[in-house]
Amino acid sequence: MHQAGPETADLLGLQQPQDESKESLLQGLEGVYYEEGFQPLPHELGVLGHKVTSGDLEATAEARTAVLDVLGELLSQHILANYAKFVKGIDSVSDIERELASSLETVRAGRAELAHMKQSAFMDVCIAEGALRKRRIAKVLDALLKLQATKQLSVSVREAQDKGEFSQAFWQCAQSCQWMSELQQIHASKPLTASVNQLYEETTAWLENALQSLCAEFKPDRVTKVLEGYIFLGNTSQLGSEVTVAFTNAMDASVLAAAKLTVVAHFGGPERAKGITSLQEAIKGMPANVLRICLAKVLTAIHDVLISHHRMLAWVQEGRQRHAADMSTLQHAKTSLHMRLSSMDPSFSASLTELQDVEWNEQGEMAWGDVLGVVMSGLVNGRGFLWEEASNKLLMMFAAPSVFSDDHFLTAVNWAHAATAMGAGFCGSQDPVRAFRGTMIQQTRAAFDQLHAQRMDALYSMLERELWKCVPPPATPGSFRPLAATGG
Length: 488
Description:
By secondary structure, this protein is mainly alpha-helical. Helices cover about 80% and strands about 0% of the residues.
């Protein structure tokens, strides 16, 4: 018979059976019964052989049943001896089962949360991609709109030029230049930048022409826009000299236009005046009657420019007075806002926005006052130079001998006196016109002497052609009667 294995011995050793018969039954059990996967029925049938009887089967069954009962009894005793451990094991198994169930729920919840997070992350990624795509599209659209606006800039700039809105035209050009500097990587930005620079130069030329037009004919409703254009350019420090140059150019243009108009009216069509570039060329070879007409027109042109200068100076002086009043108002408002901001009373509180608006207006008003001061200085200091240019043109006209010829001598003298008075009134004193008056006196005196000599020669010639007869002295009253009777 095979002996029981170690595990079986430990199990049986927990309580040793008191009955020797039971012990013998267990000892008589073959060892193969303790092997895993053992099949007892084929084994027992093999042991009995082919000549087995029912009695043998019953005896074998009873023996094995007795062994089974002994094992069951021993197993029960073992279980009862280890009941606390068994119960504890069952409780541990239950706890483990509950923990596994809880872990399963946690895993399921975690999976659901992960799925939700995955969906949320996917949606966030989609939203982020959409937002990024929108930003890229918006950036491209913004660049395209800037390119389109720059391409169509000439229309809006020329409209502003026609309306005299020079600051707006300059601002549009500056904005477009900034756009093109931001879009340097685009090939189309280079030609567009060149076109913007050309528009900027054109606007500058328009501004200079507008200033010269104001000098030729002052219009109060346009001077503000012109000065705002120069403020935007930022070169206001030289504006005084530019105003003087503009008045000089306006006088040159007006005088030359008057001379050309005389040439066109008396010597043919406009083709005759195309090649004339100076007053000296225009009056060269003019007959006396045409030269006097030209002189009258030149005097009128000079008078108009000087009147325009006078009106601009008066407008600037009034503007400086308004500027002083506006600055006083803004400073008072600024002081009041500072007091309200520092006040603890809520009913007198003020916002920083209001203060910033007042300070912004104050800066603009200060810039405007600076421009008016520069322009006024240029107008006052340039009066002498402008009159010198005008007097040179008048002296050139009066230098022609034909101006004082014949019966128009007194007219020319009156024009000379009028020009002298005009210069004195324009300059505000007699000193700037002293040289002009002296020259005109010399020319008038020379012309008078020449005219007087011509008249005396003519009178002498006429008297020489007369028939003279000696008459008796007046002491003889009757001596004149025959002469009167004969019609002598």
